[in-house]
Write a structure and sequence with these properties.
By secondary structure, this protein is an alpha/beta fold. The protein has two domains: 125 residues, Alpha-Beta Complex (Aspartate Aminotransferase, domain 1); 243 residues, Type I PLP-dependent aspartate aminotransferase-like (Major domain) (Aspartate Aminotransferase, domain 2), CATH 3.40.640.10. 44% of the residues lie in helices and 13% in strands. It is built from 15 helices and 13 strands. A seven-stranded mixed beta sheet has the order 2-10-9-8-5-3-4, sandwiched between helices. A hairpin with a 4-residue loop joins strand 6 and strand 7. Helix 12 packs parallel to helix 14 and helix 12 runs antiparallel to helix 15. The radius of gyration is 22 Å and the shape is globular.
Length: 404
């Protein structure tokens, strides 16, 4: 029997919308033209040009991660693959792991440790709160784990673990390695890997870095690398084996065919961050997110998380009881070509403020689109007040000296 080629398959330009959606959800985010152009290029993954690009990616990553680490690795996969690389290389069967869980993605780190046959203790954080350093220390004293996992910004419910520096310092005091998910926060807010004593930082391309989905980075500290090198058991993962990846990223040797186009896109995204500088970028993100939050409240809507635990990279908005989230998402997409996100649990919608999302023109379009959509669906919102509040907050923002 011969299988026939399917008929009637239409080209992509017949499937994709004529006017591209403005991606203002929790990721992926819009990418700059230079990043998109780089992603269209294919080169020899073992050639001299690629070797030069890899060296520059590592150098720029050290700046973005704020580390002197010589163990920064690319991952041919999403941010979750970088998560898994960190977990499976630092956690072996029986390793005691403390997972600080205050949302979907922190729970995913715990699940990955479970699958690595670790002894996982979950520290469940009450809804709407950041992890408390004193409570974390109680768990560290009681359970004496050798690895702690935590997210800096929980994309799923817009919680910000603002006490990460204090928690990392406490963990180090207890001789506990710290793995941090920084997918939505790296380059949008301060994260000082070396100064804070973090042992593994994970990020994906598609959020804070404003690169493409599917290519990620993980940085290991020297302490973490010593743990990896000292393991006597054979890692069950081959693609995610950090020592094998090190052969490509530091010794110009073959591991697998690298996603060259994605690495070129990552190079351009990192270069744009370095040109902008972290301090300027942090202020841009802070200004845009705070202005967006003011605008949301001026519309007549409320924010899901209290200011002390609120993530600026992804903003959660409570929905009125009579409004269905799916209706909002569909209406704003169909009528205004703006894409925002639902949630992983709470009755909220989420608007991203990562990378290219944090631009004034994107904010004005999004606030108007959200307000007009909510009004059309029957919510008592004040669209002119929301837009006016956005303009006022953007104009009154005072640039601050942000530590890097």
């Amino acid at each position: 029997m011969t299988v026939q080629a399917p008929s009637g398959i239409v080209p992509l330009d017949s499937i994709l919308p004529e006017e591209p959606l403005l991606m203002m959800g929790a990721g992926p985010v819009p990418i700059p033209a230079r990043v998109a152009a780089a992603n269209s290029i294919v080169i020899n993954h073992l050639g001299d040009t690629m070797a030069q690009i890899i060296e520059q990616v590592k150098a720029m990553s050290r700046y973005v991660f704020q580390t002197e680490s010589q163990h920064i690795l690319g991952v041919a996969g999403p941010g979750s693959a970088a998560m898994e690389m960190a977990i499976v290389n630092l956690v072996s069967p029986g390793t005691k792991v403390l997972s600080i869980c205050n949302g979907f993605f922190s729970g995913r780190l715990a699940e990955m440790a479970d699958r690595a046959e670790a002894d996982v203790i979950r520290m469940a954080i009450p809804d709407g709160q950041a992890a408390n350093p004193d409570e974390v220390e109680k768990y560290l004293k009681q359970h004496q784990p050798s690895v702690l996992t935590i997210v800096q910004g929980e994309t799923s419910n817009t919680i910000f673990n603002r006490y990460l520096p204090e928690i990392a310092a406490i963990a180090r005091k207890h001789n506990c390695l710290v793995i941090v998910d920084a997918v939505c926060t790296l380059s949008t807010m301060p994260l000082l890997m070396d100064s804070w004593g973090i042992d593994a930082v994970i990020t994906g391309g598609q959020k804070g870095l404003s690169s493409i989905p599917g290519v990620s980075l993980v940085a290991f500290s020297e302490r973490a690398w010593e743990r990896i090198n000292s393991r006597k058991d054979q890692l069950r993962h081959w693609c995610l084996d950090a020592k094998l990846a090190d052969q490509f990223w530091y010794k110009k040797s073959y591991h697998y065919t690298a996603p060259v186009s994605g690495i070129l896109a990552m190079h351009e995204a990192l270069r744009l961050i370095c040109n902008e500088t972290l301090s300027v970028r942090f202020n841009r993100h802070l200004r845009c997110s705070l202005a967006l939050q003011k605008a949301i409240e001026a519309l007549g809507l409320s924010l899901f998380v209290a200011p002390e635990a609120r993530l600026n990279s992804v903003v959660g908005i409570n929905m009125p009881d009579n409004i269905k989230i799916a209706d909002v998402l569909n209406y704003i997409s169909e009528h205004y070509r703006v894409e925002i996100s639902g949630s992983f649990g709470p009755s909220i919608v989420r608007i991203g403020q990562m990378g290219e999302q944090s631009r004034e023109h994107n904010l004005f379009r999004t606030v108007h689109a959200l307000g007009a959509s909510m009004k059309a669906l029957g919510a008592p919102v004040n669209v002119p007040a929301g837009v006016a509040a956005l303009e006022s907050a953007l104009g009154s923002f005072t640039t601050t000296a942000i530590e890097i």
